[in-house]
Amino acid sequence: xxxxxxxxxxxxxxxxxxxxxxxxxxxxxxxxxxxxxxxxxxxxxxxxxxxxxx
Length: 54
Known about the structure:
- By secondary structure, the protein is mostly helical.
- It is built from two helices and no strands.
């Protein structure tokens, strides 16, 4: 690989602000937890085990 090819590859590397480097994984984790909780609640309601369900 020539030096020019390597320089082009390095220039294409994207860098994001430190806030987004930390915020995006946290937001994905929160969304996954919320979806999991909603699925568990839906299953409990469907099975009639959730308090207050008919």
